[in-house]
Structure formats: structure tokens, C-alpha cells
């Protein structure tokens, strides 16, 4: 199997973490997010993946100089201008030479345990032009809602309906299988949305199918979900990865609860870190408190400061001694 991975977005909702780093290159526990995503593809039998790049492509190309990521061969397709989701998939598939084959396409900011083999098999058995994975959510208003019939055929594709008007809570999970005919139907070199244009057209032709799955799934695009995805990996909700990197330093008199402490981070005596992520080389000084928040790479939370309530402190930012921050982002992303 071959795959297109959409990683070209600006990551606006995760600013200031993404002011200088693409979202999929942000660290998740012990490696960039993209390695978790591509490793999942590799476990399903994907041998080659093309990254559909737009924002800061050099962050990917200079990091994976040997052309391998989690054992999967990487290809790169860099857009000259934003092509939206369908346009990016078409462009990347052509750039990598995949356009004449059945292929997977996935959103690169989703962490999931979806059974990709099951998605591929349903697609083949149904004779679909495209097959998409669905996941249930409590509030479907932020997503594309996908009603289906008893044969798994998609009846419609409704992008971000009001919560009280959604016909179902099963939403687009960002994993697709495409026949070459789908790519052929996407216009070249112009922005085209797979959610608002391609999928509704396929649904009208009754050639779009869906696999419902309640497997683990999280869209990491907000501070809350980026934090949740990491804590899920260390508290047993999903995996059981070590929460404190061997290269981190946590003083014996510090208190760390349900948090991720990454490589090179330092937690000084008397500091408290709870339900938070402390990124590589960040420092939490004496008697500082970090609660339900994200501390960016190289950031400094000085003596006695409090950072709480889903605050996001950007890379190399210094929080002054004794400051009390709740629900803020530094620097202000504007």
C-alpha cells in the first residue's frame, strides 16, 4: 500500500507552538508527531508515503534526510500555493508517481488505532470509488457528518452542521482509500476541498462507502487535544509509554503527576507539574507550578510562577518569577 499524508496546514489553532514548527513536527512523548502517524501506516503494510507539504517544508526534508520515517520510505510534494485537501492529495499523488494506483490518504494530525486493513478490505469488497473511516463524537458540529445506509454506502456528506441539525454523530475520521478515478476527477493546480466538493459529489453518485470504527481517535489540532493525545499515551488510555524521558532531569523534591517530561527538560526542587506537557529542554524552576498546560521547547517558567488552565507557552519564552497565568498563550499568536 502507498499513502498520501496531508501535512501542509499552518497549525493556526496550536499557535504559538506552530509559529516556527509545523504541527506534525511537534513532539509527542519521544518523537515528532509525524513518526507516530507514519509508524501506524507502516504497521498496516504501507511501504511508501508522500508528504503533501506547504508550511515550512524544510522542517520535514532536513529532519528525514535518509528518506525514511518509522521504516516507511518518504516522498515529498511541496505546493507552490495552497491547494486545499483534495487538491493537495491529487498533487502529491502525481508528484510521487502514485496517481495510477489505489492509495490511502490521511490527515497527518490525527492519532488513531483505526484498522486500516479493514478499511482497505471494505473498499475492495464494496467496489467503491472511495471509502472513508468514520468515528463517533459527542459534538459533531466541528466536523464532516456522514450518514450511511445498511450497506455502508454514504448517503450524504455534511460539513460542520449545527449540533441540533446533525443527522448522526459519525464523522469523517480523516482516513480514506481512493481509486485512481477519484484523483482524475479533481481539477489540477486549483484549491479543491475533499470534504466540501469531492466527497459530496461521490455520495451523489452512490460510489462513496464508509467504515464505522470506535477505535481510539483524536484530532491533535488544538492545545486541549494535543495535550490529551500525549496524556492518553502515558496513563493507560491508549499505550503505556514512559512519561519521563531518560534525558530529562526531575529533582527528588519536585512533584510530577500525569505529565510528559521530554528530553532535556529540567524540573527543579519544589516545582509541581500536573496533567501537562513539558517539551524538550524546557525548565521549570523552584516552586513553580504547571497545571493542565503545555510548555514549549526551551521555555523557562521561573521561580514561583503559576501556569494553568490550558495555557500554552511557546518555544524559548520566559515566564517571569511569581507570574500567575491562566488560559493564556505566550507570545500572543494574534
Overall description:
With 334 residues, this protein is an alpha/beta fold. 20% of the residues lie in helices and 28% in strands. It contains 7 helices and 29 strands. The chain has helices at 33-43, 58-61, 84-96, 116-126, 180-184, 194-204, 223-234; strands spanning 2-6, 27-28, 31-32, 48-53, 68-69, 72-78, 103-107, 110-112, 130-136, 144-145, 158-159, 170-178, 208-212, 217-219, 249-250, 255-257, 260-261, 266-267, 272-274, 277-278, 283-284, 289-291, 294-295, 300-301, 306-308, 312-313, 318-319, 324-326, 329-330. Helix 3 packs across helix 6. The longest helix is centred in the N-terminal third of the chain and has 13 residues, at 84-96. The protein is elongated, with a radius of gyration of 21 Å. The two termini are 41 Å apart.
CATH class of the largest domain: Alpha Beta
Beta strands, count:
29
The dominant shape is elongated
* Overall average pLDDT: 93
How is this fold's topology laid out?
Layout: E1 2-6, E2 27-28, E3 31-32, H1 33-43, E4 48-53, H2 58-61, E5 68-69, E6 72-78, H3 84-96, E7 103-107, E8 110-112, H4 116-126, E9 130-136, E10 144-145, E11 158-159, E12 170-178, H5 180-184, H6 194-204, E13 208-212, E14 217-219, H7 223-234, E15 249-250, E16 255-257, E17 260-261, E18 266-267, E19 272-274, E20 277-278, E21 283-284, E22 289-291, E23 294-295, E24 300-301, E25 306-308, E26 312-313, E27 318-319, E28 324-326, E29 329-330
Parallel strand pairs: 1-4, 1-7, 4-6, 9-13, 15-18, 16-19, 17-20, 18-21, 19-22, 20-23, 21-24, 22-25, 23-26, 24-27, 25-28, 26-29
Antiparallel strand pairs: 2-3, 5-6, 7-12, 8-14, 9-12, 10-11
Helix pairs in contact: 3-6
